[in-house]
Amino acid sequence: MFAWSLATASEQETTGLGRCLGLLIEKPLVILLSGDLGAGKTCFSRGLARGLGVPEEEPIASPSYTLMNAYQGRMELYHFDLYRLAEPDDLLELGMEEYLPGAGVAVVEWADLFTGLAREYLAVHLSHQQADQRRIECRAVGAAARTLLQRWQGEWIRQAGGND
Hints:
This protein is an alpha/beta fold. It has helices at residues 11-24, 41-51, 88-94, 143-159; strands at 2-8, 29-34, 68-72, 76-81, 105-109, 121-128, 134-141.
């Protein structure tokens, strides 16, 4: 397992972090997001979508009531929100097994509410610090996720001028 911890100072920076990751993704991937309400999960997901080539004019919103939104970019993005689900059987009704892993990128908000969603994944936990600042803890499970996390960290540090 490989881990990386960092902070963002604004909503734009959290979105930029997601975009940076999206630009690096070349293969299907599962991203498990966790954090309190308002911690920036959807903001991060919006950036991820832009990095995957989802057009700017396409609104990216939390699928709180629809449970899953699909977006077309250079890779398909499946954006899940598990907040309103109560039982593991609800995941079966949603058809999640088709997407975790699937042919595109699956990003799952509130992934910490359920265990065993994927064997290999990138986990991203966002937490409030103060005002718009967020603490972001990233963890890779599996060889492909580890390689991607290392590339993401290197690219983010390079963009920041080595200040992370």
